[in-house]
Amino acid sequence: MKRYERLADDIAGLIRNGILTPGEKIPSVRHASKTYGVSPSTVFQAYYLLEDRGLIQARARSGYFVRALAGLPTPEPRSDLSTQETTDVGVSELVFSVLGSLKNPHTMPFGSAFPSPDLFPLARLARSMTHSLRTLSPHDIIADMTAGNPDLMRQIALRYMVSGVMLPMEELVVTNGALEALNLSLQSVTQAGDLVAIESPAFYACLQVLERLELKAVEIPVHPRDGVDLKILRERLASLPIKACWFMSSFQNPVGASLNESRKQELYSLLCEHQVPLIEDDVYAELYYGERPPKPIKTLDTQGLVMHCSSFSKSLAPGYRVGWVAGGRFAERIARLKLMTTISPSVPAQTAIADYLQHGNYDRHLRKLRYALESQQDAMLASAARHFPAGTRVTRPAGGYFLWFEFPDNVDSLQLFKLALAQGISLAPGPIFSASQGFRHCARLNYGHSWGAESEQAMALLGRMLRSF
Amino acid sequence: MKRYERLADDIAGLIRNGILTPGEKIPSVRHASKTYGVSPSTVFQAYYLLEDRGLIQARARSGYFVRALAGLPTPEPRSDLSTQETTDVGVSELVFSVLGSLKNPHTMPFGSAFPSPDLFPLARLARSMTHSLRTLSPHDIIADMTAGNPDLMRQIALRYMVSGVMLPMEELVVTNGALEALNLSLQSVTQAGDLVAIESPAFYACLQVLERLELKAVEIPVHPRDGVDLKILRERLASLPIKACWFMSSFQNPVGASLNESRKQELYSLLCEHQVPLIEDDVYAELYYGERPPKPIKTLDTQGLVMHCSSFSKSLAPGYRVGWVAGGRFAERIARLKLMTTISPSVPAQTAIADYLQHGNYDRHLRKLRYALESQQDAMLASAARHFPAGTRVTRPAGGYFLWFEFPDNVDSLQLFKLALAQGISLAPGPIFSASQGFRHCARLNYGHSWGAESEQAMALLGRMLRSF
């Protein structure tokens, strides 16, 4: 154990034992450096680690604080323990029945895949739409349709530059949301019958896409905090003809795990060694709660092996359906697949977002959005601690808007899903996130909606149902 | 030969011999009925036939006139004579090299797939966008995204009702343009390796989609005026396990042919007999030059076998990327495939079009658009007659914005494409419309842009190139 890890553990102990209480400011770096007799950089590293673990949080210009819920005893869920090597995927029916249940607007949307649309600057975006349509020439419409709107692409490339990726414009393909980017990326490197390494649990659309394309899943367990299990991935890559990996490196859906930088480096080396392309689903990249954005694996991609997929749907413009992929060496193939499939995302949606990114103060909106989501996480965690039975485990992601609950073994989340829905509460039951339909006592809950008395009542009701098993 | 056909041939003779001259009004139905001693309904039938053949045209409330170019001697092209039964498709590379050539905005866009964006009410649409975004509630954005915008779907269903189809809302799936509708429809009824009957020549994206999905083409020749050859289709359906047909019933791309109503009925009976679904690509439906819209095969679809695909891209809102499919018995499967692929077309684009359809006077715009396209067809036909060599054949479609030329046998259209492009003129060479890369002495020319001195010069230049072979 390194010195900073030991220091982090010491402080974590103070938090768990209630010596440092939720909301309390922890010692400044200078102060801690003197107190513990270590260098300021060791203190910094320890604090980053604690922040990663969701125990403390930085507030701009005021230092580090113990997170409101850091002291709660709810432990984190366990990793997937299944040992199956490959799986035929057949989860779609189940997913559609869950999605169908979300249509009722009076349902408490814990099962939703989207954060509340109230969190987004829709009126400001509408002004950008009006402005950009006024200046768009008819002939640009046709040009933008095949190649993508150049202003939008420049703004996306600029954001990559800030995060350390110099992206040639030819690598960028603008798509109908991230889902099309992911679909086309996968199609660009696989054929029916191929093996694809995915996470377990995984984003259900990933499972559906594999099913539709007749691909086989190689499920790699995801640790609730550290992310995908690299030891098992290494074994599978060595023993199976895996054609692609599809992973979320940050705030993984559903568990919220992120790979740290050294694990990202290790994963990238593995990919290079086997020359296996990575489809990096990074749709929650902007929803980090820490001081600095997580670095995508794309930042390491010297060989063009990474297809980095994201969108504006979760961070700015829900329903506009504008996403993209930085496609590495597969970009041209992806662009061509897009021309055969949908041609282009809506041009007005592209120009409106481009105008907003230039003039709308995106970064201020993102700061507010992150703060709202983080506070709502605290609220849901506190509520779960009050209402859910002993033996419940939960993740504490450092970004996004999902909590992943592991309930006591006697809970059947499909049964819970039905019971809850009858009471007007939706949730996303564990089996929809698994090709092998595991995770029967797990569920994903969405905290992307403002917290209020009704949310609290719904959690209390869920708690009573959980106890009834 | 029936009485009305004989009468039509007589009048056609008068036109060809220059007795009735271009632009001249032909006798009223009452007058002709007396003169020829036949019933008014026989005269009507004869006039509809002449209109179908592009020899005369109706003008609202003023009667029938000889079409400006009806007297030209250029004959129509011949049908495909190939006898191959099934074909592996591999045309994508060629298509992309042609499409890539269109990017230069200074090129004369005879090779383009789009009509000029100047023909569309873009400013009025932008006002509809501003207005609809002002009234759209944030929560509708999420609801519209999964199910489609209800106002838009109602407007689409209304237009179906007017054309004689009572469409249950559940049958309608809103998509990212017609191309996504076609893709998903095809996927909903086929698996890799299946046979699909398509037209020869066919829309090149149809060939690309077959190639991508690893389907095999059964090419059915298209007569330049009457449409797909039903005799050959009947034979193929009887002898081959065809899983789906993909046809354009009106203004077929590239040749412009339309099936008349009795041939549509015959085709539908064939489909029912073999229980083979039809993907009906009807994107030019609104661009008819006659008095009445052509009836899609969907109007006959009592069994839910027809997936009728269209969009607003060619008639109202280029670049908005909003299309749909009336999916018959396959609608639910198509809707699910869409949720796995792109989720939804852009919600603002949907609401803007819905607002325009309600308040924008769509029908007035369409009348102007049809008139512009028809006049431009006359201009291109006249120009071709002036400049292209003897032995050139050409279609005279009763709608859309493409002419299909068959040049003398010594012309190589791929060679012509290269020569023309070097002079700043694009065109769509015949082989991109054929799985077997036939039609080497054919080309599709787009007349969807306003005609002027530059267009005339480009045609003259093409004429000189054609003579050089």
TrEMBL record, chains A, B:
It comes from the Bacteria. InterPro entries: Aminotransferase_I/II_large, HTH_trans_reg/aminotransferase, PyrdxlP-dep_Trfase, PyrdxlP-dep_Trfase_major, PyrdxlP-dep_Trfase_small, Tscrpt_reg_HTH_GntR, WH-like_DNA-bd_sf, WH_DNA-bd_sf. Residues 1-69 form the HTH gntR-type domain. Keywords: Aminotransferase, DNA-binding, Pyridoxal phosphate, Transcription, Transcription regulation, Transferase. One of its GO terms (molecular function) is DNA-binding transcription factor activity. In the C-terminal section; belongs to the class-I pyridoxal-phosphate-dependent aminotransferase family. PANTHER family: HTH-TYPE TRANSCRIPTIONAL REGULATORY PROTEIN GABR, TRANSCRIPTIONAL REGULATORY PROTEIN. This is Transcriptional regulator, GntR family. It comes from Halopseudomonas salegens.
